[in-house]
Each structure stands twice: as structure tokens, then as C-alpha cells.
Amino acid sequence: MNILVCVKAVLDLSNVSVSRGQGKIFEKGKRLLNPFDEHAVELALQLRQAAAGTVTALTVGEGRDEDALRKALAMGVDRAVFVKGPELDGSDHGVRARVIAKAMSALVAAPGGAPFELVLCGERSPEHGGGQVGPALAEALGRPQVYRGLRVRLDAGQVVAAVRTDDGESEVRVPLPALVVVDAAANHPRIPKALDIMKAVKREVRILACVELGLSPEDVGVAGSRLRLARFEIPEVKEDAAMA
Amino acid sequence: MDFTFTEEQQMLREMVRDFVNQEVKPRAAQIDREEKIPNELLRQAAELGLFGVSFPEEYGGAGAGKIGYCIAVEELAHGCNSLTTTIGASQSIGAMAIYLDGSEEQKQRYLVPLAKGEKLGAFCLSESNAGSDPAAMSTTAVKQGDHYVLNGSKNFITNGVRADVLIVFAITDKALRAHGGTTAFILEREYPGIRVGKVEDKMGLRGSDTASLFFEDVRVPASNVLGQLGKGFVTAMKCLDMGRLTLGAGCLGMAKEMLDLSVAYAKERVQFGEPIATKQAVQFMLAEMAMRIYAMESLVYRTAWAHENGQKISRESAIVKCFCTEAAEKVVDLALQIHGGMGYMKELPIERAYRDARINRIFEGTNEIQRLVIALDVIKKGRY
Ligand SMILES: Cc1cc2nc3c(=O)[nH]c(=O)nc-3n(C[C@H](O)[C@H](O)[C@H](O)COP(=O)(O)OP(=O)(O)OC[C@H]3O[C@@H](n4cnc5c(N)ncnc54)[C@H](O)[C@@H]3O)c2cc1C
Question: Chain B closest CA to A119's CA: distance in Å?
């Protein structure tokens, strides 16, 4: 059983400075593994223990996003893959999902590659909060999707999961291969051990470039995206704001 | 010069911070009240590798070095000084003695389980008549065949109740005493003749146990002599260099926590129609705190770096200990002042920090003794 966990690096908001004038956020330390994705990593590690297999963490982004993979490695994933390139900057969820799907094909086709029966994604990221990459990836892969899985197990070639619904929970079963968007209440992500952190920093991260995936610059980034960022504005901090 | 923390150091900080926020802070008041750290919490800390951060992997540690260890202690002290002290006494001075001067066999037998947190260590130097002047100790060790027989007592020993492995300093040559007549021994708790005496009822650090220990004809195998016979004082002083440095790191973490709480409170607490953070008197207190924290941080990590790079840090660690313990005490006091009456209440962690902070000027060598060390070094050198 091979599991792919899609992870994202997010800003460490406790360690940034914000310039309203320049409309920029300056990072002072490393990036963090998206806390929502930690639940997906945790589930992957638990499922690996139950059904012998491997867990691969994958991220799409630029240079410093590797920090998210280091955290996933420290938590215990077997492999880390970084689809990396400055041209990816500004990609919307649709592009990201297509890039991940292409990367999966490349990994499966590579020597020693094996299919990923299960793909796990976090619910959303705290930055844009769209929560679109998971569903878009299921679509790109043509796989059934379990949305906001709470308690997830594997049973005779099927994913059996309690999922969150608008008015509570329900149980779903889908055949493998499948994709699960993991709910933030699914588990309590493990804290990595000191020694595993020291080792994670030295472990290999497999880098994939867009060209290797057969993607040209027009396919990705702002050029390939259907969603356009019109304006980025940092609101003024006001003292008299009230939450209704 | 490069003051940036490496990626693993930043990850280590994040890890300990997560542990402290999730597991330690919610229990800190209870630990103080019930005077006991839950075994489960110690087990969790052990599992994360917090008992052996600085030791190499082959000895059960994480291999994060002195800087990594200071980071871990700093973050732990954000949550609970009793836990920090329990881990610190076991690691910085207990296990450290074995790491620095132990034989390979002793390291495998004792350091590995200590670094993994499977066993807890204690460092037994002080006696009731030998505090600032440990050379005045009266515990003796007399050789009988392939054993040493220890007699005497130790006072105010951190982890004295819980520790499994005791590093005990005893006189092996009454004529030489501190100058070649004191030896360090590794004792196992199960050795017959070891008895726990008074368990102290303390002002602060109430979750960290402090007790006296009695040794009556305790037979210690000669193979458990730690380091060279007669060189125990050298071992003790080397351990205290590390202990004083990490005590500074603990003070730094506690002080940062106090500032964080104070800033949040000052922005939120409204008097005379506006947050007290708008009052210059309060702002100046915050500035005093921040200045001290910056100085503490600079001292701690510069000294940890020097130690990591093989420099001798006896004077520097005395400076770190002396400065940071006094700065932290001042910071806690200012935090309490900013919180007004609320700061005095057990409901907030400031009252506990205020009690916890006071011991720092006393243990690991009083600040008067640190000043002596610093001054004698300056006088000997004849310049800075
Ligand atoms: C909570 C706690 C935990 C401890 N844990 C440990 C432990 O794990 N292991 C261990 O071995 N010990 C431990 N100690 C003992 C601690 O190290 C001693 O308390 C400390 O060294 C001071 O010794 P003392 O209490 O005997 O004070 P004293 O030495 O009697 O000092 C009394 C006062 O006289 C001053 N003074 C003494 N000599 C001089 C001098 N030459 N010049 C100027 N002033 C001087 C001191 O600075 C102090 O102000 C612990 C103590 C406490 C309270």
C-alpha cells in the first residue's frame, strides 16, 4: 500500500513582519508545514502502520517550501518529493492539482515506482483557505473522493470512513484507488522526536522540475491559472474594530 | 559572524514549543499545586528525546549539541520550571558528568538510558556543611578490595527522590581533599545503604523534588569511579559550566514568556478609558523587559556557540548564570507589576514564575560565588 500525502508550506505568522506600504510580508524564519496537512500526514503514518507500505510526501512550490517536507520527514514519512520551480508561483488550485497528478505519473513511471493507491490531502490552508486542491486533484486523477474524513480505515480494497457532514457524520465506502481529504478533527498529529528532526534535515528530497513532467511555463503559474489575483492588500490595523 | 539558527535548530524549537503548548502548559499549575510531575509527562518528554538533546546519537541522544540543548531548555521554561529543572539536573549535570569523563562502558551502561530518559539522573555535590564551599564536604569513599565504601550525606539534591542514577562526589584522600582527593562515583539507586532523608518543602519549583540523601556503607564497584581517581572536582566544575549555561537558557525562556503575557495583557487591560499599553510607565516596563531578554539571549547563545566550538567557558558561564538569573527575576517582577492584582493570583502563571525564579540566584553556585569566579579570572588575567 503506497500512500501519497500532499502537503503545503505556509508562513509562520509568529515570525513575519508586515509592510502595508509595500504590500509585502517579510519572513524571518522558516516556513511551517500547513497545520491542516499535519492531520493528513498523521493519518498516512497510522495507515502505514496498519497496512505495510510507504508514505510519500509531496509539495509543489519554490525554494523555501521545502521546510514543509522536512517536517513531514521528521514526523516519519518515507520519501519526500518537491515539485519545484519559480514558474509555479501564482498557480491556482487547478494548476496545482494538474501538477500533482503529473508528478504522480512521473513517480510511478520512474524505476522502482509503484502506484499510489491512496492520496491524502489536508482540509485547507490557513492562508487562502479555499480547500480546493484536494477535490480538484480527485477530479484530475478521476478517482473517488472522501471529503473531510474523520475516522478512516482500509478494508478489503475499500476506504471506509466516517465523514463530516453539514448536520453531523455519515459513513462512506469508496473503492481504491481513492483520495481522502482529511478533516482537522481526524487525529492528533504527532510531535516529531529530536533525533528524527536531526536526521530529517539530512535526508534526500527528490526534486522534480516542471519540464520533467512535460509542463511548459504557460501551463503553470499565473499563465496557466484561471483564477487571477487582482489585488493584494494588507488591511489597516484599527483599534475600534468590533466582531459582531 | 552568523547568528542565524540552522534549520534543525529552528525545527527543534518548534517541536519543543508544540510539546510545551500542548502538554506542559495545561498541566503546569497542577504540577506546582500537587508537587509532582506526572510520570506520563516525563515519559512523553523522554520519547521526544528531551533528556538527551545534546548527546550524540550513539549515546542515546539527538546530537543537537549545546546550542540545540539551550534551545530546548529555553522552550521548556516557557511552560514549567519544575519540569525544566528535573530534565536539566538529569541532563546538564547528571548525565553530562558521564558524557564528559565516563569510560565507554559507563557510557553504554548509564549514559544511554539517561539520555533516552529511561532513567533519571542526579548530581550530588552539596552537603549540609558544604554548599558554596563544596571542598568542605565530609562524605568519604574508602577502598576495600574491588569496591569503594561510601559514607556520608548530601543535601538539597534535585531529583533526590526520583533519580535512578546518582553522581556522588566523595573524599578519597583526606590530605588532598579538593586538590586531588575528591572523586566522582556513579551509584545505582538500588545499591544497599542509600536512604532518602528529608524531602524539602520549597517556595518554588514545587514539582521538582529536592531531598537529602544518606549513604551508609554503600558498596560501589571500583569500575564505577567516574573519571580519574582524585579528579572529581574537575568533573564537577566542568558539569557546572554546562549547568550554569543552561540555567541561563531557562531564565531566558521564562523571561520571554513573561514578556509575551505582559504585552498581551497591557494591550487588553483598559483603565482610564484606554489600554494600559498606552501609558508610558507601562511601556517603559516592557522596554526594560525586552532589553534584558535581548541581552540574555545574546549571552546564552554566544556562550553556547563558544562551548560548542571547544572553548573553555568557566568565566563566561558564570557571567551567563549571574546575569540571566538576575535579569529574569527582574523581568518576572515587572510582569507581575504590569498585571496588577491579577499578577499576584495563582490563576495566572506569573505568581508561580515569581516563586520559581528566586532559586536561580542560589543554586548551581550562588551569584556571589559567580561574581567571585568572574572577578578572580579578571584579576588573574589583568584585563577583560
Ligand atoms: C532547590 C535546590 C536545588 C538544589 N539542587 C542541587 C543539586 O541537584 N545538587 C547539588 O549538589 N546541590 C544542589 N543544591 C544546593 C545548592 O547548590 C546550594 O544551596 C548552593 O550552592 C548554596 O549553598 P548553601 O545553600 O549551603 O548556601 P551557603 O553556601 O551557606 O551560602 C549562604 C550565603 O553566603 C554567601 N557566601 C558563601 N560563601 C561566600 C563567599 N566565599 N563569598 C561571598 N559570599 C559567600 C552565599 O552567596 C549565600 O548568600 C540545590 C539547592 C536548592 C535550594
Answer: 26
SS (H, E, C) B181-238: CEEEEEEECCCCCEEEEEECCCCCCCCCCEEEEEEEEEEEEHHHEECCCCEHHHHHHH
Amino acid at A41: V
Residue numbers in B near A70 (CB within 8 A): 7, 11
Q: Tell how strand A178-182 and strand A118-122 pair up.
A: parallel
Domains in chain A (CATH in brackets) are 2-9+18-220 (3.40.50.620)
pLDDT tens, position by position, for chain B (384 residues)? Answer: 889 999 999 999 999 999 999 999 999 999 999 999 999 999 999 999 999 999 999 999 999 999 999 999 999 999 999 999 999 999 999 999 999 999 999 999 999 999 999 999 999 999 999 999 999 999 999 999 999 999 999 999 999 999 999 999 999 999 999 899 999 999 999 999 999 999 999 999 999 999 999 999 999 999 999 999 999 999 999 999 999 999 999 999 999 999 999 999 999 999 999 999 999 999 999 999 999 999 999 999 999 999 999 999 999 999 999 999 999 999 999 999 999 999 999 999 999 999 999 999 999 999 999 999 999 999 999 998
CB neighbours of residue A57 within 10 Å? 30
For ligand 1, the distance from its centroid to the CA atom of residue B325, given in whole angstroms, is 14
Q: What span, in angstroms and rounded, lies between the C-alpha atoms of B74 and B17?
A: 9
Is B190 noted as a catalytic residue in this protein?
A: no
Biggest CA-to-CA distance, chain A:
61
Cell of B260: 509575551
Cβ of B158 less than 6 Å from ligand 1: yes
Using most ligand atoms within 8 A of CB, pick from B96, B123, B132 the residue to mutate for ligand 1: B132
- Cα–Cα distance for residue pair B244/B296, rounded to 1 Å: 13
Name which of B5, B6, B8 to mutate to probe chain A: the one with the most chain A Cβ atoms within 10 A of its Cβ: B8
**What does A181-224 look like in DSSP terms, one character per residue?**
EEPTTS--PPPPPHHHHHHHTTS--EEE-GGGGT--GGGSHHHH
Looking only at the bridges linking them, the beta strands covering A158-165 and A168-175 are antiparallel
CB A170 within 8 Å of CB A178? no
Alpha-carbon distance of B10 to A74, in angstroms, equals 13
The verdict on the CB of residue B210 being under 6 Å from ligand 1 is yes
Q: Strand locations in A63-175, DSSP E?
A: 79-84, 118-122, 145-155, 158-165, 168-175
Burial of A158 (0-12, 13-18, 19+ CB in 10 A): middle
Spatial CA neighbour of A94 closest among A54, A127, A49, A130? A130
- Select which of B35, B216, B364, B368 is catalytic: B364
Strand A2-6 relative to strand A118-122, pairing: parallel
Which of A29, A191, A201 is closest, CB to CB, to B15?
Answer: A191
- What are the cell numbers at A225? 491559472
In chain B, the domains with their CATH numbers are 7-119 (1.10.540.10), 122-230 (2.40.110.10), 234-381 (1.20.140.10)
